[in-house]
Amino acid sequence: MQKLRLQFQMRRIPKLALDYRYGTLVEEERERRIQLEIGPSAAARGYFTFDEFLEVCLWKTRGRSAPLVASNDPEDVEEATHIALSASSERIRIGVLRSLSGVDWPTASVFLHFGHADPYPILDFRALEALGVGRGSVTYNFELWSTYVACCRDLATRAGVTMRELDRAMWQWSADRNR
After folding, report:
1. Which residues contact 141 (CB under 8 A, 6 or more apart)?
2. pLDDT of the chain along its 179 residues, tens only?
3. What is the SS3 assignment for 134?
4. Sign of torsion over alpha carbons 151, 157, 158, 161
5. Coil, strand or helix: which one is 73?
6. What is the Cα–Cα distance from 40 to 43, expressed in whole angstroms?
7. What b-and-e string marks burial along 68-85, b requiring 16 or more CB atoms within 10 Å of the CB?
8. Are 108 and 116 contacting, i.e. CB atoms less than 8 angstroms apart?
9. What span, in angstroms and rounded, lies between the C-alpha atoms of 127 and 7?
10. Which of 28, 35, 52, 101 is deepest in the core (most CB within 10 A)?
11. pTM to 2 decimals?
């Protein structure tokens, strides 16, 4: 596993986070709803409902996984997300989410990012690029996930920003670079 290192100056994080734009106005509104309503509701209740699960997956994958995601049993979704939000094991948290149809590492990370009490980054090729990982040069696995989480938590703490701000900044830096 290569060492993850922020590819831009840390002092740029707040400005990049403010510049963050994710797709259409509908997608940005969905993200706002996930951040301000769905995530906090799920955290308070201890699980995501099936409808919330569908909306989060729609936002992250922009609909690419919709048929697979919709094939999940609502009770399985509630139980898996409950386990993910309450387990003490990092491997269980991410693994139980990945057991759901249509949910892989990046989408699973979104549920932890918005619904878990601990700060979690969203795993995304853009965020990885901002940490020096080239597209297509990485295999998602637990070692990468745990290294990525630790790196992002450290960066957010050192920069004095929230995990959401760091996530937005890394995503935006990559988007700006690749225009």
Report:
1. none
2. 568 999 999 999 999 999 998 877 888 898 999 999 999 999 999 999 999 999 999 999 877 888 999 999 999 999 999 999 999 999 999 999 999 999 999 999 999 999 999 999 999 999 999 999 988 778 899 999 999 999 999 999 999 999 999 999 999 999 998 77
3. coil
4. positive
5. coil
6. 5
7. ebeebeeeebbebbbbbb
8. no
9. 10
10. 52
11. 0.93
Phi and psi based region of residue 132 (left: phi greater than 0; alpha: psi -120 to 50; beta: remaining): left
Read off the tokens for 118. Answer: 């601990």
129, 135 contact by CB (below 8 A): yes
Distances in Å between the Cα of 56 and the Cα atoms of 16, 102, 115, 144 are: 23, 12, 11, 23
> Do 177 and 128 touch, CB atoms closer than 8 A?
no
Residue type, 68: L
Structure-token pair, residue 50? 């099936």
| 104 torsion bin: left (phi>0), alpha (psi -120 to 50), beta (else) | beta
